[in-house]
TrEMBL record:
It comes from the Bacteria. The keyword Hydrolase applies. It comes from Wigglesworthia glossinidia endosymbiont of Glossina morsitans morsitans. Hydrolyzes diadenosine 5',5'''-P1,P4-tetraphosphate to yield ADP. It is an enzyme of class 3 (hydrolase). This is bis(5'-nucleosyl)-tetraphosphatase (symmetrical). Its EC number is 3.6.1.41. The gene is apaH. It catalyses: P(1),P(4)-bis(5'-adenosyl) tetraphosphate + H2O = 2 ADP + 2 H(+). Residues 4-171 form the Calcineurin-like phosphoesterase domain.
Amino acid sequence: MSRYIIGDIHGCYKAFLSLLKLIKFNFEKDTLWITGDFVGRGPNSLDVLRFIYKFRKNIFVILGNHEISLLLAYINKKKFKIDPQFMQIIHAPDSSTLIRWLRNQPILKIDEKNKLIMVHAGILPNWNLNDLLKNAKDIENNLKKKQYKIFLNKTCKKNNISNKIWHDNLTEEFRLQLSINIFTRIRYCFSKSIIDMHHKISPKKAPNFIKPWFNFYNTVLNEYNIVFGHWSSLGNYPTPKNIYKLDTGCCWGGELTALKWANKKFFSVKCQ
């Protein structure tokens, strides 16, 4: 039995199947973790979503910013111009089943035995483990509620406009909004408590007043291995030895990458 972790698939269904073939994934014995953003941008988001749902007993996902955007699009389909890939899902005959399953998926996954955390984008440097667990659980619980539409509309619209500061006196709404941004969108920070929501480029080209979130000291980073996606422009930029980047730009013509956890071996396939 092996565990594999795959980065952002972004609807690249053919590359996804090719990667599973390359690693000789055994659907009876192996497990697969996916770092989020398995829908959006690529040509076959519905196929990817249906495949994951079909094999959900041994494929485990977390939500990325594109899954959050899909949920937001689903509840506002009459009000906004929506990505064609999302419309394909929204108008599918099984859309209600897929969306219900999607909003019951976690924002964070932790394996205590292996001291392994999977998150889509990253974590705030001044969060401890309790902060991490509480903020993730609060998002997940709100997405599961009957009133999830109200929660999404309050916390996810226009939430990527400016720099954000985390402090102890945040309102509940802003705490949840900022938590979603951190889990699904973070790349750079000004300090351990101030995130930058503008820059997406490689750290090699970034201004020196910001640093990648994983380059700040953090008790969680000191105790756990972390796998994440989201940041394809990282390229070959080095991360700490216990931090594993898995978004290798599949939807931009790069590669789709899997990590075999037991021996830390990487596998990749080219994407068209």
